[in-house]
Amino acid sequence: MLTVTDLCAGYGPVRALEGVSFTADRGRVTAVLGANGAGKTTLLRTVSGLHRADRGSVELDGKPLDRVAAERMPALGLAHVPEGRGVITELTVEENLRLGGLGRAGSVDAADLDRVYTLFPVLADRRAAVAHVLSGGERQMLVIARALMARPTMLLLDEPSLGLAPRIVAQIFELLRGLVESESLSVLLVEQNARSALSIAHRGVVLNLGRVVADDAAEVLAADDQLRHAYLGF
Ligand SMILES: Nc1ncnc2c1ncn2[C@@H]1O[C@H](COP(=O)(O)OP(=O)(O)OP(=O)(O)O)[C@@H](O)[C@H]1O
Ligand SMILES: [Mg+2]
């Protein structure tokens, strides 16, 4: 379980997070929703050690993450897929995947690769192709698969649906749901596409100007007309 308590962070005078508290349960998808500039990306970057909090704490299964450097996070079970599908385009699909296993304890073996190829057959077919030739949806699958190579217990995803066709988004979300159920993976899913995110999430946390304005079961949020119109855009 990820526990975020009274988290405050910003960029100089800009306050991006102001006292954010919530939990993301084990084996659950927790959606983080809110308009542009609400603080979603800053939240993920602060949890994963890429941005420094001014105040507050983050714990993963009771262990404090506050002073842990970003590069040590995979060894503790936390993987972060940032916005923007950053694959190394000159390397092959398989070489990109192998990089994903570097941060964790133990070396990458064939079983690790087989596992992600079973989850993403499209990547298995293209394992020897340079990532440069992949489509947007395939790249998004590759960055998620690369994160899974570290065998995380907690996966942070920043806008995986951005710019993808609805069919591909549905495919990726379906796969995430399967992983959460079969491997008791926990996912913190940042999305602009609130309707899709709430369709696979168990819970949702809604941010506005760096503060939590709602935190409830996904179906409760999806049924709240006022909240949807004010913050979720659907
Ligand atoms: N590097 C930065 N320097 C200064 N201000 C920043 C920086 N990054 C983000 N901010 C500001 O912090 C606030 C929160 O931004 P953040 O990127 O976390 O929002 P977001 O919810 O992810 O938005 P989006 O949906 O557009 O991705 C915004 O006011 C933004 O302008
Ligand atoms: Mg963002």
UniProtKB/TrEMBL annotation:
Query: Which keywords describe this protein according to UniProt?
Result: Amino-acid transport, ATP-binding, Nucleotide-binding, Transport
Q: Does the keyword Cytoplasm apply?
A: no
Looking up Gene3D superfamilies in the UniProt record yields: P-loop containing nucleotide triphosphate hydrolases (3.40.50.300)
Q: Which GO terms describe its molecular function?
A: ATP binding; ATP hydrolysis activity; branched-chain amino acid transmembrane transporter activity
Q: Pfam families this protein is in?
A: ABC_tran (PF00005)
SMART domains in the cross-refs: AAA (SM00382)
Q: Which biological process terms from the Gene Ontology are attached to this UniProt entry?
A: L-amino acid transport
Family the UniProt entry places it in:
Belongs to the ABC transporter superfamily.
Name this polypeptide is given:
ATP-binding cassette domain-containing protein
Native organism is Nocardioides marmotae
